[in-house]
Amino acid sequence: MAINGELLRNLRLVEVIDAELAADDRVPPIKQRRRGISAGALPVSIAECQMIGGDCFDDMEKLRDDTAGALLRAVADAPSAPTARQLARKFGPAHIRAIERAAARCGNALDRRLGRDMSEAVTLDLDALESVVYGHQKCGTGRSRCGHLAYNSFIVTWAQRGRGLTSELKGGNQARITASSSLAMLIRAQRLLPKEHGQITVRADVGFYSAELMMGCRKRGMRFALSAPRTSTMWRAVDDVRAGAWRDAIDMRGAQVAELSFTPQGWKHEQLRLIIRRVQVTAAELAATSPKARRRTTIPREQLQMVLDGQLDSTYAYSFIVTDIPTATRLPAATRPPAATRPPTATRLLTATQPPPATWLLTATRLPTAVRLPRAR
């Protein structure tokens, strides 16, 4: 906590957030009492609560009771749980964007102090994160496909820095967002990058795949590598690959790749690259999976049935990537967010794979959706 607090104080994160909130005329002011904390101190204090394991507003009392550690924190006078909850309800979308800008400013300042190359190429990851909540009165939640009451956080991450830049919060029943919403997030993320940044490449999984998003990326000068859904068009493309065209994948043991030219429906430019990856799956491995297992959806139906019937000992599971990255350029290596159990640190507040914790708590496009957190159980 001492290192965390010192880093945040050194970067003046609270002051930068307050300055961003004050500088934007579109941001309604947050009322501050004479003895209260500032608007910038609230999200930082909530983030510090998360750093010690807090997951709801009631846990702010544990932080408040830690008087010995107060001098080590960036916000020494932590608000009470009722105060934090009441103030958080006043934060709207404009406040969230201001917090994102402030976190990006501090993150870029940290990069410069560390001597990082500010002009290097940037990879932006579009991803979704489900957050299970408890209590049927949570505003804005929805049942996910797994039946959980949850929120879905849609996040844009700067992969090279491992830093969340911007996000949107939706109900758990909204597993996807529109291409226009995805592009709006990417544009916001682009504005948060240092001015001298290099070429931007967008990566996204199949839930974000659309020609509209690809067209939007091209218009903004961003390259892209999007996972494509396993449609009949993709299965026909597998049949078009010559037997000798498969090559061993780099840094992916047991995988092979092949490439075809491809023009998605709605794409109005040059032909794109379709990268097909396959991994061998044995009959024993398939037999050990559930009939609803995701692995089974990656195998052509005819081949899957032949394996299950004992006619084949093994088959291949396939995935597809559509990209406009030039052939001579190596595709960005796939990265995934760290496990949820990874201990949070102050550095993660600025370099986490999901948005800064306090921003994530308040990142809804409407309130009080984002501020009604699970109560202590």
Descriptive notes:
The chain is an alpha+beta fold. Among the domains are: 1-116 and 373-377, no CATH class; 230-323, no CATH class. It is built from 14 helices and 10 strands. The protein has helices at residues 2-11, 13-23, 41-51, 60-65, 81-88, 93-113, 179-192, 211-219, 232-239, 283-287, 294-297, 301-308, 346-351, 357-361; strands at residues 122-132, 142-143, 149-158, 163-171, 200-204, 223-227, 247-248, 255-262, 272-282, 314-323. The longest helix is centred in the N-terminal third of the chain and has 21 residues, at 93-113. Mean pLDDT is 83; it is low at 334-377.
Layout of secondary structure:
Blueprint (H helix, E strand, L loop, with lengths): L1 H10 L1 H11 L17 H11 L8 H6 L15 H8 L4 H21 L8 E11 L9 E2 L5 E10 L4 E9 L7 H14 L7 E5 L6 H9 L3 E5 L4 H8 L7 E2 L6 E8 L9 E11 H5 L6 H4 L3 H8 L5 E10 L22 H6 L5 H5 L16
Parallel strand pairs: 1-5, 5-6
Antiparallel strand pairs: 1-3, 2-3, 3-4, 6-10, 7-8, 8-9, 9-10
Q: What's the helix-strand series? A: HHHHHHEEEEHEHEHEEEHHHEHH
Estimated structural class: alpha+beta
Helix count from the secondary structure assignment: 14
What portion of residues belong to β-strands?
A: 15-25%
Q: Stretches where pLDDT falls below 50 for ≥5 residues?
A: 334-377
Q: What is the radius of gyration computed over CA atoms, rounded to a whole number of angstroms? A: 23 Å
First and last CA, distance:
26 Å
- Give the biggest beta sheet: 10 strands, mixed
Shape label:
globular
